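DM from R.C. (forwarded with permission)

"hey, sorry to bug you on a friday — could you get me a structure for this? deadline for the figure draft is monday and I only need the backbone to look sensible"
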Amino acid sequence: MLRSFREQIDVIFREDPAATSILEVLICYPGLHAILLHRIAHGLFQIRLRLIARVVSQLARAITGIEIHPGATIGRRFFIDHGMGVVIGETAVIGDDVILYQGVTLGGTGKDRGKRHPTLGNQVVIGTGAKVLGNITLGNNVKVGAGSVVVHSVPDDSTVVGIPGRVVRTRGQIADDLEHGKLPDPQGQDLENMQQRIDQLESVLRSLLEERTQP
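My reply, with the result:
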């Protein structure tokens, strides 16, 4: 338990340049409070004290703005940056060294029972406001761009952006950091391609009209 607590402190200093002291981290980081309370709630959930576990998780939600179902399984060195609005469903499984930013949802897609929430591998990073939905798997070293909606499984070493999420980088192309200013824009590219096609068709139409009006 002490080792896990120390790792949580260390990962905050590693990932957040704004962290300046252990006291500041202990007092001012809701992501830390949320994961520590989740560890307690999850332990209670596993020994079937499920109502008490839910009470602890709701207390954590009220304090931090982060909702983690006590049934969710979360690995080591989990880091939630800022955290407001993060939601993690009951059957979600999260590997080690995963980072979530504010507004992320690891949710279901309906009223299915059983495994209905995502599984995340190790060293996954999910950007602000992204939604990962359903019983899908994000492999190791996957990066998800801000605002994306991912509804299909993603292989290891991939970067996903867009609605619905598309793989825009794979093994050998992936960047170490999730630099949103450098990510491809598949929707924007689709619109640009469509505009080019429209321009081509208009040019052909003009040519045909000119031929028909010639004496």
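R.C.: lifesaver. The domain at 2-184 is CATH 2.160.10.10 (UDP N-Acetylglucosamine Acyltransferase; domain 1).
me: no worries. The helical segments are 2-15, 22-28, 30-46, 50-64, 186-213.
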